[in-house]
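User: structure tokens for this one?
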Amino acid sequence: MSVKWTCIKADDRSLARRGRLDTPHGPVDTPAFMPVGTQATVKALTPEQIEGVGAEILLSNTYHLYLRPGADLVAAHGGLHGFMGWNGPILTDSGGFQVFSLGDLRKIREEGVEFRSHIDGSAHLFTPESVMGIEEKLGADVAMAFDECIPYPATYEYAKEATARSSRWAARCKASHRREDQSLFGIVQGGTYKELRTSSACELVEMDFPGYGIGGLSVGEEKPLMYEILEHTTPLLPLEKPRYLMGVGSPDCLVEGVLRGVDMFDCVLPTRIARNGTLFTSQGRLVIRNAQYKNDMRPLDELCDCYTCRNFSRAYIRHLFIAGEILGATLATIHNLRYLISLMAELRLAIEEDRLVETAKRLLAVTN
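Assistant:
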């Protein structure tokens, strides 16, 4: 087992935990937010800038890297670490969400999923075994099992069939995974049905993965329902292993997820909205393109210590966006990632000091 999670402190008034994930490429303090580098790059940033915002672990996407540039080329560079010039830990998702998002371009059967590339229309087949082969070539510290991502809404009958298939695929992934310096995490499915979440979690726990993703949430359901399903699911997973809520990254969802026992998060949201000029701040979201910031000499957030806030005004950053300058996207992305990583550090400290509930209440008053 190449990855090990250690609980440093459990919160007495919630399900939250403060921990550390040890990997072959270094430790990760948890709860943690993982910036997304879908195509072996966090858009608009260099690895040095990513390190500068305090990120300890990145996520890359198996589906996209399989199609372009191909897993063999990445492997020829010594894996993703050498290919993208990032020396810290990396997690690769299985591409399941992307494949199942293709709609009419894919066909599900027991062997796997037939799909057509969104790039050139070419035909491909993902099976649990082939995805494990791709992820082993990519060489991340953590690889995710290939699962069937259940959309919202979904009928109970569909969700039951898909959940059972995901469990069968998880067993096939585990049987075919060989790389000893890479840990394979299972993914709990079940849609918004608690009974199915229970059966999925129990089946995966029986397989004894070193960590567990919680998939199929934040796919269109209302947040209170997501929190309800999450609160039902996390207690079903082993206390001594990490829990990863996949595809969630708004500040309020991070706080609510930590309260419910989640250790790891990822999402494209902070980088995507940054490129469109929307910033997270301690006073709520700020849309920098708005005319009210034309002559605003203040930083994006006076409480933020990021490179952007230390050096530039709202007026300057607005100018960059209005002028279509690439630097605007870079400075905004630096800020949004630093904001979330600082948020996670604040939550970790609050757990250590037995004041998480009060801290969460304060943060949610701003982020909601």
